[in-house]
Amino acid sequence: MIKNKEQYKKKQTQALKSVGNLENFYKQKFKLKSKIINHQIKNGNKRTCEKTLLKCLKSFQKTLFKNYKKVVQLAIINTTPIFLLKEIKKLKKRRKKETIIPFIPKKNLRISYSIKNIILEALKKKSFSVKNYKNLAQEMLLSASKKSETTKKKNEIQEQALKRKKQLARFRWF
């Protein structure tokens, strides 16, 4: 049984190294905890959001062999999009013309977008409420292993942005 745990840990560390530069991710000045709580808040109940996040992280500690912080960071890394799509409406003589322009968001916008997608995907499940932490933990585990709907959404957005390469000529910073 000890060999199985050691092999499991080796596979986990290899998977973490293959994802990319986690060291650069650690060096960023933002706090993930506060961002997750801010995206999760409904009706100003910050305490309940903090409790659900703590329960979620405690469940990670009990069930996983690896560090729970790395799991959360992997989930966010795997769901951060490189491109986002922005709709711009132009008026020309009583006609509205909508153009969709792909753009490269800043790091803070990417991270907040990925956190929002993880939380919204957890909300879609039937039994999720602000107090229910199990769906949030499950969604983070799935997105850390690249098996969730949020990673599929990210890939679809990337494909749409690459299809609209011509409109990168109208590239803007939003």
UniProtKB/TrEMBL annotation:
Domain Small ribosomal subunit protein uS7 intervals: 24-161
Gene Ontology cellular-component annotations: ribonucleoprotein complex; ribosome
Biological processes annotated in GO: translation
InterPro entries for this protein: Ribosomal_uS7, Ribosomal_uS7_dom, Ribosomal_uS7_dom_sf
UniProt keyword terms in alphabetical order: Mitochondrion, Ribonucleoprotein, Ribosomal protein
Family recorded in the similarity comment: Belongs to the universal ribosomal protein uS7 family.
Protein name as annotated: Ribosomal protein S7
